[in-house]
Specification:
There is one protein chain. By secondary structure, the protein is mainly α. It contains eight helices and three strands. It is elongated and about 65 Å long.
Length: 212
């Protein structure tokens, strides 16, 4: 970027489920420790499985565009639960108002817990229209969290970090032990000799360990 105060880094998800790269969480943590006041994370897609972002970000902004078919069906249940702010971009397009109304109707069916009312904003990124209002709403949500409204979200985020750290350590310890096993080396040679495929070898090794 031409702005010396902005750093942009692209990260491949590498098939990591959740919509963000596995390394993203650590990257955000490092930037936070470095004193960066604002860290923006763009997640991949908006399907029901791409909700890992809620474990990383304090404020989740879901972008939606009109003209993608049935607007209500296009918004997945998981996304409705994690969104703190909805934005209908390309608001100058036909059906933009209807899309915003449909989202508001869905939100009214189940209010977000904790007292935060999820707003639905309209923007036109090309012209910048509505962007200032979006920035203001993000600021309002930050104040809401700082006043105690985000206690449950923060607890969930920290718990997710701890669970993932434990899982990584356990996996590392188990794999370190596996490599020392004679059976591991035997199966490794069989894979090299094309006598067995890696998946079948893994199944056999787990059975040897008593794991079905």
């Amino acid at each position: 970027t031409g702005d010396q105060g902005v750093f942009i880094r692209s990260m491949a998800t590498r098939n990591y489920v959740g919509g963000i790269a596995k390394a993203t969480k650590n990257a955000v943590r490092i930037l936070d420790a470095a004193g960066k006041d604002v860290v923006l994370v763009e997640a991949v897609g908006a399907g029901q499985s791409e909700v890992e972002i809620v474990k990383v970000a304090h404020t989740v902004v879901v972008m939606h565009a009109p003209g993608l078919g049935d607007e209500i069906q296009a918004i997945k249940a998981g996304i409705m639960e994690i969104a703190d702010i909805f934005v209908v971009n390309k608001a100058d397009r036909e059906n933009a108002a209807k899309t915003a109304t449909d989202i508001q109707a869905i939100l009214q069916l189940g209010g977000k817990e904790g007292g935060w009312k999820v707003p639905v904003l309209k923007t036109i990124a090309l012209t910048g229209e509505g962007v200032a209002e979006l920035v203001d709403k993000i600021g309002e949500h930050r104040q809401f969290l700082q006043s105690g409204g985000g206690v449950e979200r923060e607890a969930m985020r920290v718990e997710a970090e701890l669970v993932e750290a434990v899982k990584d350590k356990v996996a590392e310890a188990v794999f370190f032990g596996l490599r020392k096993r004679e059976k591991f080396q035997e199966l490794l040679r069989k894979i090299i000799d094309r006598e067995i495929d890696p998946a079948s070898a893994a199944d056999e090794l787990l059975r040897k360990m008593g794991v079905d």
